[in-house]
Amino acid sequence: MEAVNTALRTDIRDLADTVLAWRLTGGLPDADTAAQAVEQLKAHGLVLEEELRTARSSLAPRSPLWSRTGATLSEAGGRLRAPLSARSVGGIVVRAQNLARLVHALLNALDQVPPAPSPVPHTTVRRPDHGPQEAARP
Does the residue 1 lie in any domain? Predict the structure, then answer.
């Protein structure tokens, strides 16, 4: 799974901020708009969850950051996979706003974790006198 680039992270934050502002701006969206936001936030959240899980693997086990990211991943694991059961606009909005807060938590955690190192590609070099030989890895 490819890492979420900076521009997409900004778009995801903007979506989450828009959803969180729904009640503050005085109006609620219609049920379809709210349900679409739920689905978009779930999809983005799943990608962010996987990215955080990968980045977390580079942290020292039992470090404070390792523990905090573990708590965020645990919360994400259940909430991102739960079906949308609300039927009213208010219920769907609450779900969307809860997901928006979770997406913010995932993004904030990713901002604190150094990116996971890229894997070193395996290459073979041909030495003139000795035939194929595996390249040394750095």
Answer: no
